[in-house]
UniProtKB/TrEMBL annotation:
BP term (GO), one: quaternary ammonium group transport
InterPro entries, sorted: AAA+_ATPase, ABC_SmlMolc_Importer, ABC_transporter-like_ATP-bd, ABC_transporter-like_CS, ABC_transpr_FbpC, Mo/tungstate-bd_C_term_dom, P-loop_NTPase, Transp-assoc_OB_typ2
A GO CC term attached to the entry: ATP-binding cassette (ABC) transporter complex
SUPFAM superfamilies: MOP-like, P-loop containing nucleoside triphosphate hydrolases
Record domain ABC transporter: where: 8-239
Record-level Gene Ontology MF annotations: ABC-type ferric iron transporter activity; ATP binding; ATP hydrolysis activity
Protein name, UniProt field: ABC transporter ATP-binding protein
Keywords, comma-separated and alphabetical: ATP-binding, Cell membrane, Ion transport, Iron, Iron transport, Membrane, Nucleotide-binding, Transport
CDD domains linked to this entry: ABC_Carb_Solutes_like
SMART domains: AAA
Organism lineage: Bacteria, Pseudomonadati, Pseudomonadota, Alphaproteobacteria, Rhodobacterales
Species this protein is from: Pseudooceanicola antarcticus
Amino acid sequence: MPELTPRLEIRDLCRSFAGVEVVRNVSLSVMPGQVTCLLGPSGCGKSTTLRMIAGVETQDRGSILMDGKVLADDRQFTPPEARRIGLMFQDFALFPHLSVAENVAFGLDGPKAQQRARVEELLARVEMSRHIDNYPHHLSGGEQQRVALARALAPRPRVMLMDEPFSGLDNRLRDEIRDQTLDVLKDEGTAVLLVTHEPDEAMRMADEIALMRGGEILQQGAPYNIYNAPRDKFAVAFFSDINVIRGRVQGALTETPFGQFLAPGVPDGAEVEIVIRPQHIGIDFDREGRGPLPTPQQGTPARGVVQRARFMGNESLVEFRMDHDGSILRATVPNVFLPRPGKPLWLSIRRDRCFVFPVG
Ligand SMILES: Nc1ncnc2c1ncn2[C@@H]1O[C@H](COP(=O)(O)OP(=O)(O)OP(=O)(O)O)[C@@H](O)[C@H]1O
């Protein structure tokens, strides 16, 4: 039988500071063993949401449940230490005067031998057994982070809350520690709510992403769905650079220099924005002033002149000034191709990879 009760559920959580509502009707649930990322720009209310779940901040309205039981609502309040929630924050430092083993055992009670067994088990999981008797100042940042993970997991929390836990680590190390952390969390079956402002981190870690803006959840779903079926321009732009082409709708279609785009359900005369990621703009050569023939998949190509081309390693980012209106469009192309400024090329837009949104 699948487990149907969410490990963590929050319903209509609200919180204001000085009359400004910074978290508005936030609802989500996390199943055991699932990682949900609260993703959004700085100040959108992610940490406040996490703090309310941890119990270090109280909500104005809404409820927080664990395994179907109320932890906090307008009548009840379970104190933080009784919530069985683990915390891992970027600046959640280890205790400097305690050894690695003592740090990990800090939240444990029960017989010493049992505590020691749990400490050894977790340190082995995070590959830190050889540092068991060392002190935090002997460890690198990544090693400290692994011990912090072991410490947070030691009392077997039902839910783990993580606020930008990897942002103090350099890029290469961060990927490694993220993957390892994820493996350990999955093994333990903990439900994880992770706050980040980095889309790459959310895509890498999350089973579900809750994209936040201005205190509200704008869109929630599997990373694949959020990336490929974004609700609006903000949701597209949060994950990558975007190009925007404007058009006006007539008969559920909008006419542009790149051909027609479908705009189903948009009334005649309304303005739409066609949003396209740089990697989904196709490029073709100029053949004496002519480009490739139109196709249903790519529409009509339009000509632009290379303004700048930057080599980025795996790909090059090429900036074009379009002949038809002087606007700038950006395309990424495989790094084998680095066109010179001044070169005319033809750009086309993949119909299955662009998004058409009504303006306003
Ligand atoms: N204790 C507080 N008193 C007053 N305002 C607060 C308090 N805590 C948070 N805020 C405000 O609430 C808003 C949301 O803050 P929050 O820290 O939740 O955002 P965030 O999305 O986590 O951002 P960041 O990634 O920068 O931490 C911000 O405008 C912040 O200044």
